[in-house]
Amino acid sequence: MTFRTRFAPSPTGPLHLGHAYSALIAHDLARSKNGKFFLRLDDIDQTRSRAHWADQITSDLSWLGITWDGPIWSQNTRSKAYSKALHRLWDMGLLYPCTCSRADIKVAASAPQEGAAISGPDGIIYPGTCRGVPKIEFQTNAALRLNIKKALQQIETEDIKFFENDVPYHQSDTQMIATIGDVVLARKNMDTSYHLSIVVDDAEQGITDVIRGEDLREATYIHVLLQKLLGLRTPNYIHHRLIRDENAKRLAKRDDARAISKFREDGLTIQDIYALVGLEPRT
Ligand code: GLU
Ligand code: ZN
């Protein structure tokens, strides 16, 4: 099977060293294996995505010597595919509308009987306030959440497993329910969310290896669950370490001092970037 991977940045800010690290690993691995490397813009959030950031990202990637196969995919143009997957999950009875605000969730999750609110891949674990609403017509004027307990009952295996460089990672049903909870699969007035669109696109592009930061390992459990529910192949996952600043803090989008464009302006070379992220220089 041809090795196929991708880089899926959100055009909501500049590329920084952490992104460059991810893109370089994925790209160089694909090239060394005569595989494919795709570029996909994670731009479903149109309130935050900007065309000028997309331009800056492609320019920075090209400067890094990164080439991609085929056209750049924009998730913003893919709503039909996401909607199909969403309807499928709805028809399986696994989704329910949720009208809670962030503040509502915070209050409900910290109610005395709930104990301390715990965080999952998407922030505070949803306390389940809207889970019991009677089944109504499909609608997207509210967020749609995945009933994770029900979803886990639908799949045959006992737990969610994926492989990373031959090392199995797995989580039991009870752990998934406790540490992930009912995640949002469609945001209000949208027919998708990060989790759903990434899974649909990885499958459609035939991605064999997903390479991304270890901050997304928990999200991977959701992605593997969605693949099982939708009958999609689970790729191999590689979660790399995160690039941190001098204070061991993860780099953030707003951290302009580490933007690739800034390094370019300052006259650094590609080899300097390899050294900065701790990669062997490209030969
Ligand atoms: N846009 C996401 C990010 O930059 C993509 C992550 C992924 O590859 O799944 O975090
Ligand atoms: Zn709710």
Automatic annotation (TrEMBL):
Check the record and name the InterPro entries matching this protein: aa-tRNA-synth_I_CS, Glu/Gln-tRNA-synth, Glu/Gln-tRNA-synth_Ib_cat-dom, GluQ/Sye, Rossmann-like_a/b/a_fold
Q: Record's Gene Ontology CC terms?
A: cytosol
Q: Which UniProt keywords apply?
A: Aminoacyl-tRNA synthetase, ATP-binding, Ligase, Metal-binding, Nucleotide-binding, Protein biosynthesis, Zinc
User: Source organism's superkingdom?
Assistant: Bacteria
Biological process, per Gene Ontology:
glutamyl-tRNA aminoacylation
Residue ranges annotated for the Glutamyl/glutaminyl-tRNA synthetase class Ib catalytic domain, each copy included = 4-267
Any one GO MF term held by the record is: ATP binding
- State the EC number(s): 6.1.1.17
Cross-referenced Pfam families: tRNA-synt_1c
Cited Gene3D superfamilies: HUPs
The portions of this protein that span the membrane are: none
Note the PANTHER family from the entry. Answer: GLUTAMATE--TRNA LIGASE, GLUTAMYL-Q TRNA(ASP) SYNTHETASE
Q: Which family does it belong to?
A: Belongs to the class-I aminoacyl-tRNA synthetase family.
Q: What is this protein called?
A: Glutamate--tRNA ligase
Q: Which organism is it from?
A: Planktotalea frisia
Higher taxonomy? Bacteria, Pseudomonadati, Pseudomonadota, Alphaproteobacteria, Rhodobacterales
What gene is this protein translated from? Answer: gltX_2
